[in-house]
Amino acid sequence: MKKITLRVITVITAVLLATVFVYARPVSAKILDEILDYQITADVNEDATVNIRYDITWKVLDSKSEGPLEWVQIGIPNKHCNNIEALSGNITSINTKNSGGTYAVIYFDRKYYADEVVQFSFMINQDYMYQVFPEEEVVEYKFTPGWFDSAPVDNIEIWWNSDKAIKIEPASLNEGDYYHWQARLSPNEKFSVEIQYPVDAYGFDLTQHNNSDDSDGYNFSEHSAIENAMFAIIMVVCLIFILIMCCLPVVIPLIVVLALYNAARGFKVTKEKKITRTIIEYYDSCPNCGGTRGEGTDKCIYCGTNMVKSKQEIKEEEVTPENKKILEYTSDGEYRYSDNPNRYVRVNVISVPHFVHTTPPPRSSSSSSFRSSGSHHSSCAHSSCACACACACAGGGRAGCSTKDFYKTNLKLSYFKKK
Description:
Layout: H1 2-24, E1 33-44, E2 50-60, E3 69-75, E4 81-86, E5 91-95, E6 103-112, E7 117-126, E8 130-133, E9 138-143, E10 153-161, E11 167-169, E12 174-175, E13 178-185, E14 193-198, H2 225-264, E15 267-282, E16 308-314, E17 333-336, E18 343-357, H3 367-372, H4 374-393, H5 413-418
Parallel strand pairs: 1-10
Antiparallel strand pairs: 1-2, 2-7, 3-6, 4-7, 5-6, 8-9, 9-14, 10-13, 11-14, 12-13, 15-16, 15-18, 17-18
Helix pairs in contact: 1-2
């Protein structure tokens, strides 16, 4: 039982380690595209909205894994986009509604394949980008251009109109009428800039301390108590579902291992002897050359002819009172059998694994309880398995044979003349 417990613990540990290894490995996204150039130009309007122009040069690296490039989505500051306009002729459709307002969704006039480059431009009028700080009497725009989760950006440049600005972060030199920042970005890397203005520079709404409403979150104050309760219930159900899905890869193998362990408890492995007895009768002399049988073999030592005249396997249940003497042979080997000098009994002994229940199954007074008992079913299943294995594995292989009539010289002279 100790050996079985140790094996079960080893199996559980191995399964858990394998599960952790499989599901903890980082999954690296294949790079399908490369952004060669990413130009953003921003101009603040008198009403504090911002006109933002995007000029993008996009190269397709792989058009087989997920197909050719037909459309893209570019992140924009928030859902308060007042207007969006395509500036290049290769754009057939552009909108923000299909993404809930957080992306500009752009469809091209054709498919682009590996090593092809597409250049496209569009402009948006964006509101709610600034935050008011009344104590400092300043308004700040914080702008992070849309980034790309699985594509590198070889060159990104932000051009922000410097008119009336009093402070910027990070530092930049004026190039004409614009502040200019430039960088190179890895996949999923972001780049942010901050520009401050006096509170009276443009038509800022000073009644709100934070107008940078870039959140699409649920606002409880805008809904009734019933709607808020339903939303809370849905969120809890979704959270439970997500937790279950995350735990399944670990829980399922653990449940399987525990089930196997419970099924194995109460059993031990023993070995049963399986004896095969075969009566073999040899020829007096080789039917081909008249020679004798080779030592330890069933063949003639001169010409290799098979010397076995007949062979009969005797099962224990088939033993009659007349031949019950055969049951006395219980060790591997070949023994003389009966008065016939050419008849022997060959014995082959093998050990067969056998599962034995170490604790008696609980008694039951009803047939329904008996059928639902796990211990009864386990015992029956294992006994059947042991029986099937014993029948399947019996026989095979040849036991050691003792040499008979090694010095017999019943040879025919004609055989040597021919040779």
